[in-house]
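Internal ticket #5521
Category: modeling
Description: The requester needs a full-assembly model to guide mutagenesis choices. All entity lines are attached below as received. Residue total reported by intake: 1439.
Assigned to: D.W.
Attached entities:
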Amino acid sequence: MLDTNKDSLKLEAMKRIVAMIARGKNASDLFPAVVKNVACKNIEVKKLVYVYLVRYAEEQQDLALLSISTFQRGLKDPNQLIRASALRVLSSIRVPIIVPIMMLAIKEAASDMSPYVRKTAAHAIPKLYSLDSDQKDQLIEVIEKLLADKTTLVAGSVVMAFEEVCPERIDLIHKNYRKLCNLLIDVEEWGQVVIISMLTRYARTQFLSPTQNESLLEENPEKAFYGSEEDEAKGPGSEEAAAAALPTRKPYVMDPDHRLLLRNTKPLLQSRSAAVVMAVAQLYFHLAPKAEVGVIAKALVRLLRSHSEVQYVVLQNVATMSIKRRGMFEPYLKSFYIRSTDPTQIKILKLEVLTNLANETNIPTVLREFQTYIRSMDKDFVAATIQAIGRCATNIGRVRDTCLNGLVQLLSNRDELVVAESVVVIKKLLQMQPAQHGEIIKHLAKLTDNIQVPMARASILWLIGEYCEHVPRIAPDVLRKMAKSFTAEEDIVKLQVINLAAKLYLTNSKQTKLLTQYVLSLAKYDQNYDIRDRARFTRQLIVPSEQGGALSRHAKKLFLAPKPAPVLESSFKDRDHFQLGSLSHLLNAKATGYQELPDWPEEAPDPSVRNVEVPEWTKCSNREKRKEKEKPFYSDSEGESGPTESADSDPESESESDSKSSSESGSGESSSESDNEDQDEDEEKGRSSESEQSEEEGEKKKMKKRKKVPEGQREGSSSDEGSDSSSSSSESEMTSDTEEEQVEPASWRKKTPPSGKSAPAAKEISLLDLEDFTPPSVQPLSPPTVVSTSLAADLEGLTLTDSPLVPSLLSPVSGAGRQELLHRVAGEGLAVDYTFSRQPFSGDPHMVSVHIHFSNSSDTPIKGLHVGTPKLPAGISIQEFPEIESLSPGESTTAIMGINFCDSTQAANFQLCTQTRQFYVSIQPPVGELMAPVFMSENEFKKEQGKLTGMNEITEKLTLPDASRSDHVVVQKVTATANLGRVPCGTSDEYRFAGRTLTSGSLVLLTLDARPTGAAQLTVNSEKMVIGTMLVKDVVQALTQ
Amino acid sequence: MIHSLFLINSSGDIFLEKHWKSVVSRSVCDYFFEAQERATEAENVPPVIPTPHHYLLSVYRHKIFFVAVIQTEVPPLFVIEFLHRVVDTFQDYFGVCSEPVIKDNVVVVYEVLEEMLDNGFPLATESNILKELIKPPTILRTVVNTITGSTNVGDQLPTGQLSVVPWRRTGVKYTNNEAYFDVVEEIDAIIDKSGSTITAEIQGVIDACVKLTGMPDLTLSFMNPRLLDDVSFHPCVRFKRWESERILSFIPPDGNFRLLSYHVSAQNLVAIPVYVKHNISFRDSTSLGRFEITVGPKQTMGKTIEGVIVTSQMPKGVLNMSLSPSQGTHTFDPVTKMLSWDVGKINPQKLPSLKGTVSLQAGASRPDENPTINLQFKIQQLAISGLNPPLFAKEDWP
């Protein structure tokens, strides 16, 4: 048929041949007949002939040469499609003789007009290389040329060729680095994957590690880390802005090219291709500063909804990441819950991840999930779950007993596999704290009659042997039973029987001597040489004989030495030395062709190598644009400057408007104040950088101020109508307001703006006052970008000056006073105290701002003070203070950090790291610090209180001691205990305070009804009952002291 | 990169093989068969199998294993993603992707595979381009081809390859310009036996069918784009525009494609529109158990729930079940112990229920596992996330 002239018949014949090839049948006999048709005009026949040729040319090299001339003609064809396909086939037929022809063809095609042909040339490079690796040098030249190509079509393929031919020639990338970064988004998905992984390696060799300088990102680790929704909403832009601003301020400067890479890959996290997402994820994991890695979590979790094969690979990677960066995936814990429809391998991987993510706070939920899983029908999965429980139990001491009890219950399960698995895990757990669990061991001993799984039997025997003192009665009995069935046991059990016998012989030789000898002689004639060996060895050791006396004296030490408890670790623990997302990582073995991810260099190589002469580049891109009209739409060179910039500027303007809107309540007053406030801060900057002395002075001042506060308060609150000129204007304002309020309470808020405007002189006084009140603060350390928001927050605080008792709010130190975080001795000369400043924390209003005072009483400077890896309960988050570079002897300094306690009094634990040491410290907030004062009128107060009755109301009766019956004392004590604002009140013997919890913003209302006799009733209304109860307790204690 | 591809059906026959580099003997698949035997179910075959000289990466779809052979380090997802793309392309070409269809169109399949990879590296994977290179078979074209002898292979370079919109071909013409968008949402929920939701999340996709002339540039905006928490796009969507303005701006490919898929986070709890009441008990004394489930609607916003299918894997001890449904049909497979009940529409006045007895293996003790109930249903014209209609949902019920 192939010899006919009719195309349709030829086609039919070729189709049959191709079908044969497809089924894997040998069609090589037909080679001569087929090869003749290579010059056929019909394009479909031609294609099929190509298919055939590529398949069989290797086997019939001589005949294949006949076709070469056709391809060579094809290479000159005006149709680019034909040129390309000719090159493709030519390079695919793997006949060594034509290497020079191929080389020529590739070189020619590399400078072809059509990018499609150039792409094909790029594809041909690795083919030629695999055929004849001597051509490498010439090929590298071609690669270099193609790397300079600016079309997206070529980029992916040429990087692929680069990776296969000369991955070590990293110098070729320099000039093209920026271009590749910018083109990346427009390259097809497959190219993206290859380019990203190449750039990962490149960046590892060319840039400095961003993690060596953590402090750099401490301004917003929170945001980037948890990547919450709001963050996502305005995130990308603001982060970029912050990141862009970073290098100007800090000594460690992230190379702008490094940043470029991170920024340009980030949108690819939203690619539809799982491979691209994974590639970006690994890039971020390996290259991004710790704080930014969090962004990948969400994308990876999304991939979990994909095909099960994708899930499998992604989960493997997540498992590795979750060991190193647990916090990253914690918010997505529930996404790893197992579905009944998951295949077993996915279930097991998910279990792994769940176990890695389990910590003190989420362990109850995780364990509850595990309980459900144990009832599953999939036995492998159940076994894995039991092991997971075991691992949780070892990692989290708190739940160890619960887990152990649960596992013991499983021992009565009817499924033998489950029981066996539990026994093995129990054994490991018991090894950690054997003393308390004699009961369990007894229970296990009973099980020896029933359990048949060798591993479990062996585990039980080992346990009994090891802890035979705890079960002195049972142990010999077990040995007796085992001796009886010795011959029928599995090898592993036999070994343990010998072990048990030996141990018992040593501890309780009277009862077990004969038994041991019996067992040993049985073992002596066992079929397995290991067992015979062991028996001989044991006999020599324990049975005293003339020669071996020396050893047998130490037998007890040998056998009953305390053994370290096993550490149950994730099998993914050591995988992170492989590049994530790679095949080698998946298999946990080096695959052929795997390239190690290089370590970060100590010194940054010269960044200027990446510089391209700028004018040329822009010119080129312009030309490019002109040539291809659509380009500007998608290409980054333009897209970048457009939308990104607007994105950059957006958040800022937003925050500005934010600050405006927040200051609106304070109206003209606050906005005009902002300038002063700024100056004020500048002053502070100067002050804090001065020496210790002046610091002390500042502190003295502070003390004075504090004294001043109560005076003001007394005047403010005791005289309802006395307008007072001596106290600050804000106070006078409020008193007048309270007056007015009695007439027209609802108009309170509306009132403020005019009063603010009308009294500029008074304002000034208040400002002075405020200036004094600002603490010797750390404001200068907070980043300029945040200043606007922090200002806004400060202003918010200022507006509150209108309310009667706010001076206390502004007092720098709370009632709790300084608390010790780290003692001078424990800290090796570093003493750390903390106070709750009660100032709104700049950056995040949900955070309690904590002032940390460091002082160095050692005689060496302490360097690199920063917060290290916080281990926080769920919900609680920390905004770390910027790293303190150095603290010379005798010096002290202060830093502010923000902690979001999530409205709970759980302590925030974190590490305080210096260059040499790490100290574990924890800050536990008094309940009163978890709230911020709010201002409300009496009516509002009553209304809110009406809503919060019943369960939400907590009442306590108390007797006020004489000392604290006066108004100001009561007010002072309450405000010192809790960060509440006073609410004006009509009757003189009632005090009202209001605040909102910081995180959830739920109201906390406090009423104190004091009788002149000293009897008083304290009522707290709050949605958060726990907070309410604790607050009552604290306040009562404060008042009755 | 990818060396060879083998297609293996569920009975273990290699019915198609394709090599992009030198030929790899099909005996390499023996390792795969070994792994397949070890795994009890087809889904449990590990996607990556190392062999002494090669690595086998496989995906399982439409009862066919697509096994790729690779020799050197390559990101596994790269290969897996590609294999899925192959399957999608076949589906696009032939409507279904099944063994007989592939066998019937083996030449087209071969040509397509040839175009998709060059030397193991993906070349053209966009179906728009592929369809220009190799025309999909239609009945009409087969007839025409046999008469005129013309071919399936295009002789023009697909224009898309050259433009910066590689997913769209140029010169598209339609007399009726139309674009359809389908919003499909799935709820995926795990509900414990007392009926409280453990996790629930919404997974949505927007599928589009665009038939527009020329090179249209479309924008699509949502009423409430904040809802879209986590999005992944077709490459045609401009990332930057979405990031800055939350507007989808794109030049669509011609024909059917998936514009975006999104995820609505599990935090804001999802109201699940159906409930299942179940009462399953096994008694120790007799080898009989009682079984009763009722399905009812909950917060459907006036829409009817259709296409309800309840499936449940019964414990091994169950021999047979004699059940009577109030509507729909049910089957119980005594071998796999799978109960499935095709309910159909739910009529809120008369709730469908399935009652009956379970006969257990005599003498065997009471099975201690709780059967898991899976429930699938559809609601037309309703988006549970509040985005846009309609909805497809799936629910999990352990």
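Resolution: model delivered.
Comment from assignee: Chain A touches chain B through 118 residues (CB under 8 Å).
Ticket closed.
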